[in-house]
Design a protein that fits this description.
five-stranded antiparallel beta sheet, two-stranded antiparallel sheet, 9 helices, 15% strand
Length: 248
Amino acid sequence: MPTSKENLRNRIIYGQNLISFLNKDKGYYLDFDGTIKPKHDQPQRVIGFPWIFSGGGGKMRCPIWQTLHFGTFNMIPSYCLGDCWKVVIIPKGVNDLLTVHQYLESFGFESKAGLDMRPYTFGMYRGFIYCATKDEAKEKENYLGTTLHQIAEYSVYTKRGCTEYENKIAPSDQWKERPHQKNLETLLEADVDQGISEIKEPHFKQPEWAKDLIRLHWVQSAYASGDRSWKATPYADFISKSISPIIY
C-alpha cells in the first residue's frame, strides 16, 4: 500500500505510461512474472484488471475450464466437482474492499479481491478465497469472523465452484459427473496446449504499479457509483472528477 501521496502519484504516472506503451506497441506484453517482454510468438498478456491476486495458482486452470470444458462441452470439470470451494467476501464499500485486499495479501491466502462486474451478481465489490475442501473453506470463513470484522464491514459465505455452473446446469448440491467425462477430459489434456491449459490468474506476479492502477480503478468506480467511502481512501486525490455544472 502507498506510503506517501507523492510516491503514489509517481507510481500511478509510471503505470499509466507503461499501459500506454503496451497499448500502442503490440510487440511487447506484460508477462506472468510481472515483467514486460518482447512478444515474439507469445500470446498477449494482461495485468488482471480489475482484480489483485494473492497466493499461488494451485492446480486450477479456470480460463480453459470455463471456455472449453464448460463453454464448449457443457460439463463441470472434475476438479471443480471435488476440489473447488470458495469463501466469498462482499465488502460494504470501496474502503472496506481495500482493507479486505490488504488482509488477504498479508495472510497469503490463495485469493483475489476486486470488482465483480458480472451483470447477474449483486454488488460489485468482492473478495474470493480459494479452498480445496468445504471444511477448509468453513474454517477460513470462521477465521474471518474473529479478525477481519474488527476492521471492515462485509458479508461472507462459502460456496462451491463457479456461479455460471449453477446458473446453467444445476444448484451445486446436485452436480454430478457426466458419463464418459474422464475419457473426454483425458482427450482434452492430450489435445490442448498445456502451456495454455495451465494459465490461472493467480500465477500473475502483478507489479506494484499495476496494483496501484487497479486500486485507483476501484476507487474511481466507487465514485461513479455514488459510494461515498471513496473519500476515505488513499486514492481520493487521484481520481478523475467532472467540474460542478452551472445549475439553473
